[in-house]
Amino acid sequence: MSGLRTSRTSRTRLAGAAATVALAALALTACDDGTGVESEGTAKPTGPTATAPASPSSGAPASASSAPETPPAPSASSAPSTPSAGGGTASRRPAPSGTPVTCEGSTTSTVAAPLSRPLNHLLLTVTNTGSGSCYLYGYPAVRFGEAQAVPPAVEDSRPQAVVTLKPGESGYASVNLSAADGSGTDGHTANSLTVYFHGRSGDESVGTGAHPRLPAEGVHVDDSLKVTYWQQSRDDAVRW
Question: CA-to-CA distance for 84 and 81, rounded, in angstroms?
Answer without folding.
Answer: 9
